[in-house]
């Protein structure tokens, strides 16, 4: 497009900082992270916003304007300009740079101009476009943009986060404010703008200001007739005319900035899909936002996600009589698998199964197979010599189990392989992996299949089979790519010898589930409901009986900071914070009884929520079948959901009581729990080779008392509870990368005292100090940390210019080798315990793995043998320089089996 084509422009102009801040406050910072400690909620919200607006408005050109730090010419006019704004939230720091990277990948121009604001850039571009016959759409929450609205300029004003926009044209402006858009800056000069710290005329609101503008034409007309305006408002105007004139000077749009004039500079369609996908990977964005990126952004060609271009072998849908021969001839050397099935509450179902090789592709509908064909399929699936691969082997095995089928011979699990190569990226499904690595969109085929279904073409079965075949073919190609990457990342052994075998063990745990008493949970819930009412009534008694909503931040802000006059904490966009951390700090400072009741109410509410979630996941046979994940926690630890059994509190008596609902299965004697004692500190001793820590573990003395005696330079018997607690906090804090500031908050001491404690610790245990320092420096040099099994975590931010990101990476470099090694060891232990149970042909079985603890069903008469198995399996999982100590407890339920 040339400059002469300006009249064809439909340019979208976005206020970058304004929309980034709205996105930041619309989405929780703790819910969006790149996995390395950098919040990405503003980046995600902004990206979603620009995708949505481009998709709906279909602009031909886009420009995003940003403010520069350091102020503008307006600050020289009025030194209090924007002076009332809160300090930038620390979680927002670094996100503007990331937004700019996203815009670069999308091919969208962004601009800054020294000494001017984003508003001025937008005003200049909008004015030029309208003057030359084009159309401009402005996206901003800044009301100063209203003055730009005209026949060719529309304001898209966000009304709900960044997802819902209100179209403001001249008619809409006049209806809302009673004046035409070009007079809005006059109205704002009279009323003032609190966001910019520009005080208006006291006692004059928008309606009065609009009435004066209609009566006298504009601001100069109002000022010229100020002496005629009667009453307090008139006198207030006369007293503040200087402020009004200053405000008008400040809010006037700059229309003549020197900016790139050629429309080609702002044209859409220069984005790079490959770069964008790689950046989304770094930001840990999931597959949904990727497939929503309009093709308008991208330059086309190989970078644009598209339907798979590879021509597949013919999709075979064999009859039952043909299947045995086909399995032998076409798939006897192995296959990549994709399935259509489900697994819910312990019940699996496999409806279709696709098998793919380079030369053959088959899709089986299991309901159509006769007995002989199903036996042939079962034999093929169970043959350990026939290699098989899938995206999520455990889930496919669950589906097959629902059909009475077992699968052996797994070669590659794509989800696990991807995680080992990229542990800090958000897990994705097969379609997401295909989009990420092959730049192909399997959803195109899904849409085609659905279209055939809608049209009634053969009930869509051919299209569905083609789609499932495409998925299996994607598994085939991704497997080669990811196995090559596993070798590059030195993670092939971790995949083949640890994680893939463990997946089968975990699958058995999930399929078995654990027995749960709904009656016990219901009883606990009733107790908590009674207590919830009691603490609420007690809280209301401190408010003269006023019954506020104790879960409403807005009502709590009014009660805490206005009515009760308590010290104000961190300010948020909607007022002063009422989050849990703030309330705990406030209670420690004030000991106010209302806060005590409020915190108790939150605790009991949380207990009820946990209990309610557990009850919803009890299967018809009275068991909970949680789902364990090997590809969520970047350290390698297992996590669980549906429900999250690692989220049951253990630090409080009320939390621990929930475990009393989990018992041994019918026909079993009891539950047995086994966990490691102080495993992180034992790994610290092993990795640091610190003689003092090693001596502490080998001596058999109480570790924290032993360490405290060295830190405080007293005899072990002279160590009191406070000394032991402080030393324990330091030891575990170092293992988790806790800073002196974090230690001070945890111990409720000054940062100076926390620093002195840490320094004293390092003086006595120099090996720990040296190990931690060397861990960071080694990771900075290599780009990654490693566990005892060589599990890597990549930390590019260790060399970042952004201090916050660099410090986050340093904390990860400190704790990942320890936390990751603990994860490695419990996984090795699970494999060894499973192996020993099978060798000894015991009926007892593992039910759960929670953090460093195993929970087992113990069969009648097998307790002694199970104790031996657990002690040997866990104790010998990995040879450290200090012994691995295993604690064991037995009881009728999970609570009483604790030790």
TrEMBL record:
Pfam families: 5_3_exonuc, 5_3_exonuc_N, DNA_pol_A, DNA_polI_exo1. The keyword NADP does not apply. Its EC number is 2.7.7.7. Gene3D superfamilies: 3.30.70.370, 5' to 3' exonuclease, C-terminal subdomain (1.10.150.20), 5'-nuclease (3.40.50.1010), Ribonuclease H-like superfamily/Ribonuclease H (3.30.420.10), Taq DNA Polymerase, Chain T, domain 4 (1.20.1060.10). Residues 655-862 form the DNA-directed DNA polymerase family A palm domain. The keyword DNA repair applies. One of its GO terms (molecular function) is DNA-directed DNA polymerase activity. It is an enzyme of class 2 (transferase). Keywords: DNA damage, DNA repair, DNA replication, DNA-binding, DNA-directed DNA polymerase, Exonuclease, Hydrolase, Nuclease, Nucleotidyltransferase, Transferase. InterPro entries: 5-3_exonucl_a-hlix_arch_N (IPR020046), 5-3_exonuclease (IPR002421), 5-3_exonuclease_C_sf (IPR036279), DNA-dir_DNA_pol_A_palm_dom (IPR001098), DNA/RNA_pol_sf (IPR043502), DNA_polI_exonuclease (IPR054690), DNA_polI_H3TH (IPR020045), DNA_polymerase_1 (IPR018320). It catalyses: DNA(n) + a 2'-deoxyribonucleoside 5'-triphosphate = DNA(n+1) + diphosphate. Residues 9-269 form the 5'-3' exonuclease domain. NCBIfam families: pola (TIGR00593), PRK05755.1 (NF004397). In addition to polymerase activity, this DNA polymerase exhibits 5'-3' exonuclease activity. Belongs to the DNA polymerase type-A family. This is DNA polymerase I.
